[in-house]
Amino acid sequence: MVYFLSSYSLLSTSTLGLTASYFSSFSFPSNSKIRCMDAGGLDSDGREFNTAEDMWREQAGDPSKKTQWYRDGVSYWEGVKANMDGVLGGFANVNEPDISCSEDFLNILLSERFPPAADARRQPLVALDCGSGIGRVTKNLLIRYFNEVDLLEPVSHFLETARETLASGCQTNSDMHKAVNFYCVPLQDFTPDTARYDVIWIQWCIGHLTDEDFVSFFKSAKVGLKAGGFFVLKENIARSGFVLDNEDRSVTRSDLYFKELFSRCGLHVYKSKPFEIFNMVSYFPMTRRIRT
C-alpha cells in the first residue's frame, strides 16, 4: 500500500507485515481536483455504486432515511453481547495486537506533543474515548496514560458494562487515573465541553457517520481540544472507494476518501500509521499546520 505525504514525498518502512508511513502537515493543494466521492464502491452483497454521493443519496438522502440509517446501526449493536468477542465481531484475539499497535503509536505522539521537559508544568491529561463500547480501549490503553478518561457510546448495555468494569478496580493507580464521565450519546449528537481534552480517540466507529456528519462531528469536536490537543482516528480502510456494510450500517472508506473528508473538516494529517496485517490505519489529524 502506497501513501503520499506532504510535498508529495514518501517515507515508508516495512517489517513483519507491518508498514509505517508518516505524514507531515498533509493538506490538499487549494486547486486540488481530487474528488474521492466521485469514485465507485460496493456494498456487502457485491452491489456496485457509481459514486459515494449516489450511495449516500440512497441510504440517507432525506431526514427519514438518515434517521433510519442511525436507528438501524444502533439496533445492530444492541443485539450484540457486551463482551470482548461481541464487540470485536468474534475476533477477541485481535484485542492484544490492536492495543499493542495503538500503544506504540500513542507513545510517539505523546512524546512529541508533550515532551518530558514539560512534565512539571503539565496539567492532568484527559482523553475522550469515542465509540467506547465496553471500555476495551479505555481499560487496556487510555486509562494507563491519561489521568481522566470520558467514554462516549450510544449503546446503553455496552456503556453499563464499561462502567461496571472500570469501577471494579480495573484501573491503574485509580486515584490518579480514572474513568470520569460515561456519555450514552450518538457520536453525531455529541458536543464536548470546551478545551477539556488532550486527546480525542476515535476507533472503529466513524464508519457509522454519513460524510456530512463526519465533517460536522470533527468541526464541533475541535472545541473540546485543549491547546496542543489532537485527534487519533483508527479505522479499517478500503483499498479504493468504499464498502457499505448492509448489516451494521457502516461504511469502510479508502485512505484518499478519509483525506478528502479531513480536508473538508479543516484538519491536517500529521502522522499516519497503516497496519497491513489488519487492513487498518491510524490517523493523527490536526486543526492547524505545525513545524516538524
TrEMBL record:
CDD domains named in the record: AdoMet_MTases (cd02440)
Membrane-spanning ranges: none
EC top class named in words: transferase
InterPro entries for this protein: MeTrfase_NTM1 (IPR008576), SAM-dependent_MTases_sf (IPR029063)
Catalysis: reaction(s): N-terminal L-seryl-L-prolyl-L-lysyl-[protein] + 3 S-adenosyl-L-methionine = N-terminal N,N,N-trimethyl-L-seryl-L-prolyl-L-lysyl-[protein] + 3 S-adenosyl-L-homocysteine + 3 H(+); N-terminal L-alanyl-L-prolyl-L-lysyl-[protein] + 3 S-adenosyl-L-methionine = N-terminal N,N,N-trimethyl-L-alanyl-L-prolyl-L-lysyl-[protein] + 3 S-adenosyl-L-homocysteine + 3 H(+); N-terminal L-prolyl-L-prolyl-L-lysyl-[protein] + 2 S-adenosyl-L-methionine = N-terminal N,N-dimethyl-L-prolyl-L-prolyl-L-lysyl-[protein] + 2 S-adenosyl-L-homocysteine + 2 H(+)
Molecular function terms from GO: N-terminal protein N-methyltransferase activity
GO BP: any one term: methylation
UniProt entry keywords in alphabetical sequence: Methyltransferase, S-adenosyl-L-methionine, Transferase
EC number(s) from the headed UniProt entry: 2.1.1.244
UniProt xrefs under Gene3D superfamilies: Vaccinia Virus protein VP39 (3.40.50.150)
Record-stated family: Belongs to the methyltransferase superfamily. NTM1 family.
PANTHER family in the cross-refs: AD-003 - RELATED, ALPHA N-TERMINAL PROTEIN METHYLTRANSFERASE 1
Role description: Alpha-N-methyltransferase that methylates the N-terminus of target proteins containing the N-terminal motif [Ala/Pro/Ser]-Pro-Lys when the initiator Met is cleaved. Specifically catalyzes mono-, di- or tri-methylation of exposed alpha-amino group of Ala or Ser residue in the [Ala/Ser]-Pro-Lys motif and mono- or di-methylation of Pro in the Pro-Pro-Lys motif.
Protein name: Alpha N-terminal protein methyltransferase 1
UniProt gene name: LOC100777982
